[in-house]
């Protein structure tokens, strides 16, 4: 917790959202899930009504780990209702954006 307290002092406020980098490896998602799955840490780092963006470029998988993580935020880590998940696809460019 001391590291978390130092970070909060540096930032000065809570995060309003999370963007999952399209080039991030699955291990980064596993770490993010472990961190934000803690109610106390999530409360310390995020505003009450936060958002999560998960852009995908040229996704060849039917369901990527980023979209799975986005769904975990929506179903397991929500603190407000309603929690909606929106997928926006631009097929011409091979881009998909998951929003929670």
Give the mean pLDDT. Answer: 77
What is the chain-wise order of helices and strands?
A: HEHHEHEE
Q: Mind telling me the C-alpha Rg? A: 14 Å
Strand-pairing-aware structural class: alpha+beta
* Overall outline: globular
Instruction: Kindly report the spatial arrangement of strands forming the biggest sheet.
Output: 1-2-4-3
Distance between the termini: 27 Å
Q: How many separate helices?
A: 4
Low-confidence stretches: none
Proportion of beta-strand residues: 25-35%
Number of beta-strand segments: 4
- Biggest sheet, in brief? 4 strands, mixed
Helical amount: 40-55%
Description of the structure:
This protein is of the alpha+beta class and 100 residues long. The chain has 4 helices and 4 strands. The chain has helices spanning 2-11, 26-36, 39-45, 65-76, and strands at residues 15-19, 46-57, 86-90, 95-99. Strands 1-2-4-3 form a 4-stranded mixed beta sheet. A hairpin with a 4-residue loop joins strand 3 (86-90) and strand 4. Helix 2 (26-36) packs parallel to helix 4. The radius of gyration is 14 Å and the shape is globular.
In summary, what is this structure?
The chain has 4 helices and 4 strands. A 4-stranded mixed β-sheet has the order 1-2-4-3.
Structure characteristics:
four-stranded mixed sheet; 100 residues; 4 helices
């Amino acid at each position: 917790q001391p590291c978390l307290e130092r970070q909060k002092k540096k930032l000065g406020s809570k995060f309003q959202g999370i963007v999952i980098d399209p080039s991030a490896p699955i291990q980064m998602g596993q770490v993010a899930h472990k961190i934000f799955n803690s109610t106390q840490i999530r409360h310390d780092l995020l505003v009450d009504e936060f958002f999560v963006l998960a852009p995908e470029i040229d996704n060849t998988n039917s369901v990527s780990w980023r979209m799975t993580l986005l769904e975990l935020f929506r179903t397991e880590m929500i603190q407000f209702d309603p929690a909606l998940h929106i997928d926006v696809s631009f097929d011409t460019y091979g881009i998909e954006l998951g929003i929670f």
